């Protein structure tokens, strides 16, 4: 992982929020944005109705500064239209993404999304140049620009899948950070982008990228990474999980089971139940007793791979889940 990525990850959530609150994405002047998504939507729909207000002690700009607001809107992927001229859009894309005019950058990000959806091949050879500029926009304190970059990330995951793997680290760092912050509408968009990532990128390539973040010192980062990891493992399939290593995966899940945040612990429980199912299928284990049931049992496996305390915690989780299934059947 690059030094820049590590510095981004180690940024404290407080400083992230401080930067986030320093400017409003839909204004030509900086101001502190209200975190309520409904207010955000009403501002986009009717910018002229805005008045100077105070949010968390910071005064917003007056309506006179609301020049560019109508120029930036959040368009869902299914509502994006095709570009008018593919060749011109491709030629001007890099300059637009690297512009100092944040409104033009937003427009160029939306053009990136359009090209990835309607003209996938046109951008394929440019991904190595486009992704760093998307990352640059993700780091921008303007919320409108940041959210547009997040939405762009989700669309390129869907379009380019494993082609992104060599450039994934800086994107992943920023999406984990944005999904871990307190600004709800940015956080939710980042979580959707992470779901797109786990949906469209092969788990064999993605899981090694996620593993370092499971040990990050920021508990929110760990929680979001744990959720991504837990979603990706089942996509390996039974044979894929066996190839990746159930013993390796159970160590990961056990370490998250005692994590600080409930999101991490729930992701670990989900992963452990998946691993138990795969293990028992691969060893043809059923509730019926067989000759070697004791040596090949899930309990014996956990005890042989984990410390006594970790094994006890894992078995408690999986046994309670099994008992619940038996009682519910």
Automatic annotation (TrEMBL):
Question: Which GO molecular-function terms appear in the entry?
Answer: microtubule binding
What GO terms describe the biological role, i.e. biological process, of this protein?
microtubule cytoskeleton organization
Sorted alphabetically, the Gene Ontology cellular component annotations on this record are: cytoplasmic microtubule
Q: Domain named TOG: which ranges?
A: 79-313
SUPFAM superfamilies from the UniProt entry: ARM repeat
InterPro entries from the xrefs?
ARM-like, ARM-type_fold, CLASP_N_dom, TOG
Extent of Polar residues compositional bias: 47-59
Annotated stretches, region: Disordered: 1-63
Q: What is this protein called?
A: TOG domain-containing protein
């Amino acid at each position: 992982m690059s030094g820049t990525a590590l510095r981004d990850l180690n940024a404290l959530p407080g400083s992230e929020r401080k930067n986030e609150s320093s400017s409003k994405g839909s204004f030509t002047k900086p101001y502190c944005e209200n975190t309520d998504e409904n207010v955000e939507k009403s501002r986009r729909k009717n910018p002229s109705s805005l008045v100077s207000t105070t949010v968390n002690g910071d005064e917003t700009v007056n309506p006179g500064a609301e020049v560019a607001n109508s120029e930036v809107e959040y368009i869902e992927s299914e509502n994006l239209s095709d570009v008018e001229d593919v060749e011109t859009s491709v030629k001007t894309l890099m300059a637009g993404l690297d512009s100092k005019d944040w409104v033009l950058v937003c427009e160029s990000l939306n053009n990136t999304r359009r090209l990835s959806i309607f003209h996938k091949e046109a951008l394929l050879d440019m991904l190595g140049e486009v992704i760093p500029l998307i990352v640059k926009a993700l780091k921008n304190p303007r919320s409108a620009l940041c959210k547009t970059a997040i939405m762009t990330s989700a669309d390129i995951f869907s379009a380019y899948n494993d082609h992104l793997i060599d450039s994934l680290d800086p994107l992943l760092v920023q999406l984990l950070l944005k999904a871990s912050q307190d600004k709800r509408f940015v956080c939710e968009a980042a979580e959707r982008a992470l779901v797109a990532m786990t949906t469209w990128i092969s788990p064999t390539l993605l899981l090694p990228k996620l593993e370092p973040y499971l040990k990050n010192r920021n508990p929110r980062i760990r929680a979001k990474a744990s959720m991504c990891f837990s979603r990706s493992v089942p996509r390996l399939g039974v044979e894929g999980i066996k190839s990746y290593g159930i013993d390796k995966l159970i160590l990961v899940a056990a370490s998250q089971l005692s994590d600080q945040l409930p999101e991490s612990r729930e992701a670990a429980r989900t992963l452990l139940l998946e691993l138990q199912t795969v293990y028992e299928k691969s060893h043809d284990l059923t509730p019926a007793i067989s000759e070697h049931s004791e040596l090949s049992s899930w309990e014996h496996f956990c005890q042989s791979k984990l410390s006594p305390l970790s094994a006890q915690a894992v078995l408690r989780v999986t046994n309670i889940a099994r008992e619940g299934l038996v009682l519910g059947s």
